[in-house]
Fold this sequence. Notes:
Elements: H1 3-20, H2 30-37, H3 40-46, E1 48-51, H4 57-63, E2 67-70, H5 81-96, E3 105-108, H6 126-132, H7 135-150, E4 156-157, H8 181-197, E5 203-207, E6 228-229, H9 233-239, H10 242-249, E7 254-257, E8 261-262, E9 265-266, H11 271-281, E10 287-289, H12 302-312, E11 317-318, H13 323-335, H14 341-357, H15 370-384, E12 386-390, E13 401-405, H16 412-416, H17 438-449, E14 452-454, E15 465-471, H18 496-506, E16 510-515, E17 531-534, H19 543-549, E18 563-564, E19 584-586
Parallel strand pairs: 1-2, 1-11, 2-3, 3-4, 5-7, 6-8, 7-10, 13-14, 13-15, 15-16, 16-17
Antiparallel strand pairs: 8-9, 12-17, 18-19
Helix pairs in contact: 2-14, 4-5, 6-15, 7-8, 7-15, 8-10, 12-13, 15-19
Amino acid sequence: MNIVRKVLVIVLVAFSLVSCKKEPEVILTPLEEKLASMTLDEKLGQMIQAERYSIDVTKIQNTNMGSVLSGGGSHPNPNTVQGWLDLTSDLNHGALSGSAELPLLYGIDAVHGHNNLKGAVLFPHNIALGATHDADLLERIGKATAVQLKATGISWDFAPCLAVVQDVRWGRTYESYSENTDLVSSLGAAFIKGLQSEGLMATAKHFIGDGGTVFDDSKNSYMLDQGNVTLSEAQIRELFLPPYVAAIEENVLSVMVSFSSIDDEKMHASKYWITDVLKTELGFKGVVVSDWEAIHQLPGSLLSQVAASVNAGVDILMEPNAWRDVLGALKRAVENDMVPMSRIDDAVMRILYVKDELDLANFGSASLDDAGDKALAREAVAKSQVLLKNDGILPLAKNADILLIGPGVNNAGLQNGGWSFSWQGESTGLNFPNATTLLAAFTEVATANGGHIYTDLKDASKADIVVLVLAEKPYAEGIGDTADLSLTGALAHEGNFDAIKQAQLTKKPVVTLLLTGRRLLVDEYLEDWDALVASWLFGTEAQGVTDVLYGDLPFSGTLSFTWPKTTDADQTSSMLPNRDMTKVQFDIGYGLTISK
């Protein structure tokens, strides 16, 4: 055999051996197998979230819809634990009956307990919890909230809000733990840890920059809520990003995008912040959900809005009303190569991942623990009370005769504020049948110890002391934006003015309680008051307030926000390099203590 033929034989044998080798078998994970088995329509259905009032079992089944929500105040009839279970289990049955055979995610804004469920125990709002500086307490509240939701078949909580609020004029200020980045990071992560330890999905919101938007005097509403952030990227990363880093370290399963903008770019279209920073740089593995109909604020047609938001990195489109149109637009966007199939697969894989992480088969198996929740809420209320002034009048004697006046005395709606039974809150206590008001809490102590509680001015002469309970009207996002921070301003309760005057006329010592979701201007009244307490929007358990007023527990709360002296509230935050201390009434961290 000549050398050429020998080489040729060797090459042919080698080629034959190589060609006979089998390609290595690609082993798919169960989630990858599921994704590979799904049709385009099944995948797109998973990316849509509708409001419960706009869908039914058949629509969920036919579209393979992946999730449903209840907005603020949206609830079944009857609004009971069983009513919720009937609703959520029926809708989940529709999802499992679809061709994709995937369970349903059900989301709700349980921002201080299950605040859509009539009769539920509600915890203090975040501004109050920030004053506790107690991460362990937040973790326990997260666990308790999860059990409340799980007992009603709900698997997804649109909480916590991780806004680091720099301007008290923002209407969502009470949803923030603090103006301090580190405190928001620690408390938010603790709540997430507690909530998700019970098999619920938490939501870090609103990504990114809410609470740092520019105030606009020219607008009558939504001045800050859906405004524009003009800070540098370095400032945004320093102020607003760390709470999301902490949340991701706790394996938070969802992130909600903010309505607001950065340098006039809507966050719902920001591929840089959602995909490059959140998903790639920070390694977020869960789902990104849009806010309520937020993509419709993007420019262009519905088709371009859908494409822009999904390409930016939004995985689930919260479309309470227009979900059919959005689903159709999403399919057209894929078919017209406006959204690549790789982006759809990424979104659906993330949805499959969070559904796999959750124990969806056991939802509805938990039971409410009203007694335990009440004790926990009462503890949280007591720890959140901040004593701002005390001229030796506190603690109150348990046998004291007290004139209790002001709009917040006997109104559970005012002590809960917004996001309580309804989106903007309730002006009365009718829908809080199990709440304890301040009148009931004071009366309980006085009756047991020989004291008397009076609520009529004609009995002022019988009283040793006046407890003045001032309040804001309930409000939530947008409606709550205001430049008027006075105690008699646009969002202050209309009864405040008369109550302040009445307290002055009695010539008695005055203890003032502020039931508010923000810090209000008090400088002109401080001399007239012997004590001042920030009681915040404390929820359903008023005994936590009387626990510290009567001295059974110490005042331990300290301000997690700077308390402004003037309306120039954007100049007082402790996070500002050149804050104006002449406009500060009480600095962050301030809070008095007393002993008997």
